[in-house]
């Protein structure tokens, strides 16, 4: 296992279309899969979670994405932690709505930006492999 | 999108080798990918997280696994929420250590059982598909 640099981690995150947002709901840990884009070093999600996540807006959430192959047991995982805030500027809302097509039916009008305060990424590499970093 | 029954959800969870445990760490949401087995209706994980997760043992955690195809945008996600407790009975420890081989190097001596109090699962189906439940 090797740690990814922040740049590597954000690059990996941007290379996949979805991940999982982690937040508190009624003082309990909650997690929901959503699709995302990475833009300007931040993660943008569009959610139908409504009240559940919006209560968390302005508070700290985590966001995780991974690509781990169950057979080879190789892959990577990236976790960012940061404040979730609604995207409200009209131009940005329009642009992100174009970029983020909802995967499920239903109104998905809330765009949330998670700006990382912490970035943690790791890569699962073969134990015998020599990793040159 | 259709909801899975509890039985369907646990069956899906048991069909994949890894997921993500969600807990609070220093009052912030935290998430780590780990591998798991489903046994007796509970999720068993073996973790190298040490102090990070062990502080959560006896408190509520969430556990999520999914299999979503990025191209077809079809698949499923299951989330259980429940108390995390260490598995300490010697026979169980031995059995689960056989079942759960660590994917990364390092001591992974903590076996944790998460017994679901809530089970939430959904399946992403094609919008035009008629689902007979």
Commentary on this structure:
Two copies of one chain form a homodimer. Chain A contains three helices and seven strands; from the N terminus they run E-H-E-E-E-H-E-E-H-E. The relative contact order of chain A is 0.27. The first copy, chain A, is 17% helix and 48% strand. With 133 residues, chain A is α+β, with helices and mostly antiparallel strands. The mean pLDDT of chain A is 86. The first copy, chain A, has a six-stranded antiparallel beta barrel with strand order 2-3-4-7-6-5. The longest helix of chain A has 10 residues, at 90-99. The A-B interface holds A 1, 16-18, 20, 22-24, 28-33, 60-62, 64, 66, 68, 70, 73, 77, 79, 81, 103-105, 124, 127 and B 1, 16-18, 20, 22-24, 28-33, 60-62, 64, 66, 68, 70, 73, 77, 79, 81, 103-105, 124, 127.
């Amino acid at each position: 296992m090797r740690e990814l640099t922040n740049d590597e981690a954000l690059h990996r995150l941007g290379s996949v279309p979805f991940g999982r947002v982690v937040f508190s709901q009624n003082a309990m840990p909650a997690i929901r899969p959503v699709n995302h884009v990475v833009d300007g070093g931040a993660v943008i999600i569009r959610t139908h979670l409504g009240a559940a996540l919006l209560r968390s807006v302005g508070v700290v959430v985590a966001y995780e994405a991974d690509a781990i192959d169950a057979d080879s047991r190789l892959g990577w995982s990236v976790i960012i932690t940061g404040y979730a805030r609604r995207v409200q500027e009209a131009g940005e809302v329009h642009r992100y709505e174009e970029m983020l097509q909802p995967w499920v039916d239903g109104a998905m009008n809330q765009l949330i930006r998670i700006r990382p305060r912490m970035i943690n990424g790791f890569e699962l590499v073969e134990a015998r492999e020599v990793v040159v970093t």
